[in-house]
Amino acid sequence: MCGIFGQISKIKVNKENLNSLVKHSEQRGIDSSGLIYYEDSVYKIGRADYNIEKLLKKEKLFNSKIVLGHSRLITNGLGDNQPVVRNNICAIHNGIIVNEKDIWEKLSVERKYQIDSEVIVAISEEHLLQNHEVSELPNKILSLCRGVVACALVLPEYGKLLLFSNNGSLYVGYIGDDIYFASERYALDQIQCIDVHQIKEESLIIDIPKAEKKLHITDEKIRNENLIPEFQFNKNEEKLLEFKSFKEVNLKRCTKCILPETMPFIKFDNEGVCNYCHNYKKRNKPKPKEELFKLVEPYRKPGKELDCIVPFSGGRDSCYGLHLIVKELEMKPVTYTYDWGMVTDLGRRNISQMCGDMGVENIIVAADISQKRKNIKMNLEAWLKSPHLGMMAMLTAGDKHFFRYVEEIKKQTGINLNLWGVNPLEQTHFKTGFLGIKPDFEEDKVYTNGVMKQLRYHSKRFKAMLESPGYFNSSLWDTLSGEYYRSFMQKEDYYHIFDYWTWEENLLNNTLINQYDWETAIDTSTTWRIGDGTAGFYNYVYYTVAGFTEHDTFRSNQIREGQLTREKALELVEDENQPRYQNIRWYLDTLGMDFEEVIKIVNSIPKLYNEN
Questions:
Q1: What are the distances in angstroms from CA 418 to CA 87, 200, 210, 598?
Q2: Model's pTM, two decimal places?
Q3: Residue 455 belongs to what H/E stretch?
Q4: What is the C-alpha end-to-end distance of the chain, expressed in Å?
Q5: Domains of the chain by range and CATH?
Q6: Kind plus residue range of the DSSP H or E element containing 466
Q7: Which end of the chain is less packed: N or C, by CB atoms within 10 Å?
Q8: How far apart are CA 447 and CA 453, in angstroms?
């Protein structure tokens, strides 16, 4: 996934406008970059594994008539970069093609690279070798590819530039005789383009200078780290992961739900029913849908104009929420994704699959992935020196800027309404409970505000941080500022879809898998948090030390809602709590941490229960 942009001029590109497009493209990622430009009757390509601003300065191409480029968030492998080139055809592509293997089986040309975007150029190569019309190419590509496809395809020998998209993440505008394009409308509005329109249902074919000479390509690689380490199964490592069934651990559990005696602040009555059950208020009680229809009516916009923002992680709840917003509520959304470096390729593919199939634009805000992972590593190293279950949240603090950028996207798009697909049953009181904070049984939202509550939390956490001074590192400001945007910033013009639609797991899973081929994980039976690179590790820690995970709290809520029997819940968590080796390995590899060293420390933490 990346931000793509371009300027096609009669004389030479406008330096100021090009710099503006380049700068905005970096919002989508800075892991690698690429440029296509026309100079001395030759189309030249520069590719680098560093940011696009640096590459632009290196290439010195402001006398060119044509400049196209991308700033990339690394997805689906690191081995190859864009623009992708085959047989003097090149493309820059925003999105992920999720069915690339199926397409390659249909093509006669052979695969050369690992990057999924190659299939776009391969389809083009075969299409032109068969003497089919250039104008038919966009429909041909879009008919074969699933996932988000927003593309600029350059055919130098034909003198054509093709712009096309299946989800609308591509806009075109004009300044005089110059043509500009970008992944988002905001980038073109910033440079005061006119007649800005979305490329979605119809492609745009632009005449460019013909060039018979081969593309001139330069590559530069300076990155030492591997942002997407290749997974290699290691049976000896997997054996290090400990697991005992709930029968072996033999914890006392609530006779109504399945919460164990190690749950913070839990108490049992004479019949063995816990205080979490006694204080539970049903949350999965949707209001009449008609109320939401009335609430969103003032926000609806005419024609094809977008009218709401959907915060979108690619997880099952936001994906099903998007389905309801489009199919039931009949809104015209743009999705927004914040990628902080712990979104797995599985999560990204599901984002691409859903947005491509539904024809929904996806705006991505990507953090500095390298820096975010360094922050996590510093905090994990501090945690390992003084393991504390109440401090596990420090490892996921970097994702809280998700809430900050919602407000930025509202300003950029001019859309105020945002609709959230948050599961009402995802209460995890134990994460702060292990810090010594009592559960607030009165809270009826997943995300809560409150100055006093936050001050109490930070006070408790500060005391725990003193036990391992390594927490006082350069990531602290990122942590605190993210938490400010989540907990203190006033939120307006937003509604929760599952306040009006019942959250039903089977219906949700069946809809996503059967209608959208939504991808599940190979290392777990659950569909919850499978695109989250952190979940496997922190749940392993919780289960190893306390004998339960967030799956136990979630299933307990389902029991209280009448959605599950206690027996079925125990059966499910027996499977869901098993260690996710592949997810844990990915997590530690991305942080540059030694698997064996980390897991041995976790395994040695004193248990909160008596082992049999």
A1: 45, 23, 46, 40
A2: 0.92
A3: helix 451-465
A4: 49
A5: 2-213 (3.60.20.10), 286-550 (3.40.50.620)
A6: none
A7: C
A8: 12
